Amino acid sequence: MKKVMAVFGTRPEAIKMCPLVLELKKSDQLETLVCVSGQHREMLQQVLDIFGVVPDYDLAIMKQGQDLTDVTTASLVGMREVLKKEEPDVVLVHGDTSTAFAASLAAFYQQIPVGHVEAGLRTYNLWSPYPEEFNRQGIGLTATYHFAPTETARKALLKEGKNPERIYVTGNTGIDALFHTIREDFHHPEIDWAKGSRLIVLTAHRRENLGDPMREMFRAIRRIIDEFQDVKVLYPIHMNPKVRAIASEVFEDCERIRIIEPLDVVSFHNLMKASYLIMSDSGGIQEEAPALGKPVLVMRDTTERPEGVEAGTLKLTGTGEEAIYQECKRLLTDPEVYRQMSEATNPYGDGKASQRIRKILEETDA
Ligand code: UD1
Ligand code: UDP
What we know:
The chain is globular, with a radius of gyration of 20 Å. By secondary structure, the chain is of the alpha/beta class. 50% of the residues are buried. The chain has helices at residues 11-24, 42-51, 68-86, 98-109, 132-142, 151-159, 173-181, 189-194, 212-227, 241-250, 265-274, 284-292, 306-310, 321-333, 335-341, 353-363; strands at 2-8, 30-36, 57-58, 90-94, 114-117, 143-148, 167-169, 198-203, 231-236, 257-260, 277-280, 296-298, 314-316. Helix 9 (212-227) runs parallel beside helix 14. 47% of the residues lie in helices and 16% in strands. It has 16 helices and 13 strands. The structure holds uridine-diphosphate-N-acetylglucosamine and uridine-5'-diphosphate. Uridine-diphosphate-N-acetylglucosamine is lined by residues 10-12, 39-43, 64-66, 68, 71, 96-98, 131-132, 205, 207, 239-241, 283.
């Protein structure tokens, strides 16, 4: 039996790896182990609980105020022991976090083949998203299997000279997750709170936006709330204390914004579905929103998800206050612009990415 070890550590990785883990565990040809780094603590546990995934190993590395060196070194050292003990045939990592990069490097050092889930997303700007662009390219160097979510990602990998026989277009496992979470009969107190208003769901956390860019983003939203009396903003805030400090500075004494603790993924996906529009610097949300037919103002300078922009659901605004304010105002006042952006198109797959990856792992040797 082939031994597969899935390694992840943060909320977004967990959301996209848990559906895959559940699928791999159904196989009688694969033995599937899960190792979490614990780069995130509470936000990771929320996802594991929802999917009922219990890790075989937890490196529990999270520290308040951890920097990139802390996360990378603690994961690298921790993974060495786990890999030496278990000697998996394949290590699966997801996306672009420091956990994913360190786990792929640890596997490379033990000469264990790596499978990269969500391979081939690129901006080719090492500073945006930072450090994720580096992490993705680094993982790509170690990987034997490149599970590309889209044709665009496949083309980027081909251009970089990756072996075409090792690139598999599977769709994004984030869409698989939506099949677990979206419910027709969903109720939530925040939906009651927003009744009769246009609900904006807000998230923000990117490392390169901490400081002035994030302050500008929040100021733009503050102006929108002050100007549009029928708008309410729900902000499930990231646990990073640096994010929380800026939010409380800008959103003080503001009744129509609710800042709440991070939502579990079932609640978050269904609240996205109930929203009027989304404002975010997140990566995963850029894939989920097109599938739900919700416009997203992407408050970043670059995106590694051009498919959603081409589909018309995402608009890249940058991080300047004036541009974000103007784009949001346009969406709130021009029904035609809103209609065009809210047409549901889903460039990220059919929700069967996990099944495809399982089949590839069952049928091919690394
Ligand atoms: C990390 C990833 C980023 C991903 C993001 C998703 C890297 C370099 N960054 O960034 O790619 O988009 O996760 O959210 O891998 N914290 C808690 N509890 C938690 C989670 C975070 O208290 O459950 C706090 C801690 O103080 C921690 C801080 O948030 O030190 C930052 O966490 P970290 O994982 O270093 O960075 P993120 O910005 O979350
Ligand atoms: N999400 C969640 N609860 C929240 C906010 C976001 O479950 O309160 C989900 C969201 O649906 C998406 C993922 O978390 O699947 C995105 O994570 P994040 O923005 O932290 O990271 P990124 O995708 O930018 O790496």
